[in-house]
Amino acid sequence: MSLVNRKIIFTGPVGSGKTTAIQSISDIDIVSTNKDASDMTTKRKKETTVAMDYGVITIGKAEKVHLYGTPGQERFDFMWDILTKGGLGLILLLDNTRKDPFQDMKFYTNAFKDFIAEKQLIVGITQTDLRKSPTIYQYREWLDELGLDAPVFEVDARSRDDVSLMLQGLLLSLDPGVTV
Amino acid sequence: MSNQQSPLKLYLLDINSQNKAILEFFVAGAGREFYTLVNNIDHAEVFITDFDFPDARQNWEELNLGGKPSLILAMTDPEVSEGEWLSKPMTSDALIDAAKKYMPRVNELRQSDKDVNQSISNKNVTSQSAPLSHHRIGSRVASSSPPFGASRAMPDVATSTPATPATVLPQEMVGLQGRPLVNVDEGGAITLERPLEKTDSPSEVFEEAKETATEALAVADNSVSESVSLLKGDTGSAELSKANAFASLNKKEIPTTFESVEGDQEVSLTEEEILDEQRRHSPVYTRDKLSPEQARVRWQELCGSRASYMRSELKDIRNTGYNRESHLQGSLIAALRLSKQTQQVVQMKYEPYKFFVIYEDSLIVSPLDPKAPEFTMLCSNAVRPGQINLHILDSVQSKEMLDSLEKNREFAFELESFIWTTCLVSSQGRLPTDFESENQYLLKHWPNFTRMENFPFAMRIAALWHYEPNRLCDVAEKLEIPQRYIIAFFNAAMGLSLFEQDLDKVQSKLIEPPKKKRSGIIARLFSRLAGGMSNT
User: Polar residues bias located where (chain B) (predicted)?
Assistant: First the structure.
């Protein structure tokens, strides 16, 4: 059976919850390459993902959808191009407690612009329980400003329901006709 | 392009563990046709080094790589006469292009090595012949590198002066780690020793992750299901390739909490540290879990139970529909607009209740839970003119209110979610009096479904209305779902101003061809995720 188009990619800055989100929805214990953060990322996380995270959603007995999390540190961005090949869509997680989430959004949507143009983007805002501002209104305005058309959800990366709804939003954006 | 030749044997020189893991992933997947990793430098045909890694440049310059190609990662042009610069950030295309460039030259070398080996075999070389010199690229001999492919011009080993192993080893036969690459037994026989593996991960880590790694490797390729098996049969490097691909993966538990201060180095907390502390203690967001019967009752409160409108009824909707402005909903939306315009806290007084709208934080302070029966009753009742008053709080009043809120967080609700529910329980599946049945509507922004009260088919309705402009009746027909759910969605999304207001954009979207294709995997994954959930 072909394995083309069975990947979903999670991206976003350090500490935005990519690893946790994959862990929340994956049917297996995720394979992660978290290491002690050794540079400026220590300000946000004690550990960070250095290469990728990997999880799986199983469909039926044999079919699997593979979940990949990109490394949060921007210096590893050359891997992103490799990871996205054959992906179904992109989940961009943005940490609302970061200094400038708009810059994060700009950076990541630009980095993945070719993939987004061809596939689909969905934005998850994390840590909104810790900082209310910027609000979801502002994220929508930013997306408009960048000329992007994507659903935006507030997400607790630890909540399976939240991550599941985000994935459903992504799938429905790709194909509004799908049904249960 | 499909590469018909065997992949280049790639050796990673000085590269940090992160970039190494990324390259290993690339070689296991998208770059598999072009490269295969080897852990023995003597087997390598091409090298990658990262000049931004400490001492990498010096080490590379000291190595005698036998004229074999080097790919040099660096932020800026390293300006070296040999080697190919790959600027960062690197892409898979750059790596593949480099492989295509060097493949013909490596094939030449392969052929020449084959000839040399045949020659050695024919002349029955003995262990004392010291035949290793031209392959011993791991040595740090300061001899000048021959040009690429020049190894075929090496002296015939059978006629070269035999070297005494004891005198050769200390200087020449050392690997990158300084360990001897050869052993000499008592009889003088020379055997190659496997050099230290570059991977720094213990084998047990690989064993632990092996099963999952197989899955990951398979999908990394994107085209075949047996990627791991395809790694086999190439210089016996299957185990190595698998190990390299995931040897550095660590199946440790992902931390969901973060230590703010280690040991007793207690200092005043920075904002970052405070956030970390809050992360540690913040509860996981949970949605209400309703029984099927409770859900059915609640959906009826939100969406009503009326049968679908007939087309003839739609023409008379001005007389039969509900008037938003004569319900709490209308005043609430007005308060939202006022708070947005003034960036101030707005009080909405509806005796005996007081609500406070804080647009800046997307919050509303309400004495009633929006899911409480009292609130549903309040919303469904018509409001008399003058019964609800709006008032902008001054700075003192705002501060008092916000201070009070700190101690009474249970009265704070998400603003959008609150308005969403208010619109639903106000309309109960009825159309508003100003509804235009022939209008095409386009959803500009999706509702924040993770924080909204959901009802059946809500996400599908959003997806279709976001995908293309539709009349309300069209949505019901296309999705084949009861009209009341679409009306409920319409009312709530209108209340949140989520529909496109620019009619030109709606028109342009109408003629835009759909760009996405349907796929079976999407439907199957959706069913897997949404099975049993109430909002789809």
Answer: 117-131
Tell me, yes or no, whether B20 and B111 share the same domain: yes
In this prediction the ipTM stands at 0.89
> Using 50, 70 and 90 to split pLDDT, how confident is the model at A173?
very high
What pLDDT, in 10s, does the model give residues B357-407?
999 989 999 999 999 999 999 998 889 888 999 999 999 999 999 998 888
SS3 B90: coil
Q: Which of B383, B415, B435 is the last residue of a domain?
A: B435
Of A5, A51, A179, the CB nearest to B21: A51
Domain boundary pick from B253, B282, B299: B253
The answer to whether residue B179 sits within a structural domain is yes
Lowest mean pLDDT, pick from A94-108, B279-293, B296-310, B349-363: B279-293
Kindly determine whether residue B252 and residue A161, on different chains, have CB atoms separated by under 8 Å.
Answer: no
Cβ of A95 under 8 Å from any chain B Cβ?
A: no
What number of other Cβ atoms are within 10 A of residue B439's Cβ?
13
Give burial (CB, 10 Å; 0-12/13-18/19+) of A155: buried
The answer to whether residue B25 neighbours chain A at the CB level (below 8 Å) is yes
- Contact between chains at B448 and A135 (C-beta distance less than 8 A): no
User: Could you give all domains of chain A from N- to C-terminal order, each with its CATH number?
Assistant: 7-173 (3.40.50.300)
Distance (Å) from the C-alpha of residue B25 to the closest C-alpha of chain A? 9
Residue numbers of the domain that contains B16 = 1-253
CB contact under 8 A, A85 and B246: no
Helices marked H in B232-307:
238-246, 271-281, 292-303
What is the C-alpha separation between B211 and B308, in angstroms, rounded?
53
Is 70 exceeded by the pLDDT of residue A124?
Answer: yes
B231 and B84 within one domain: yes
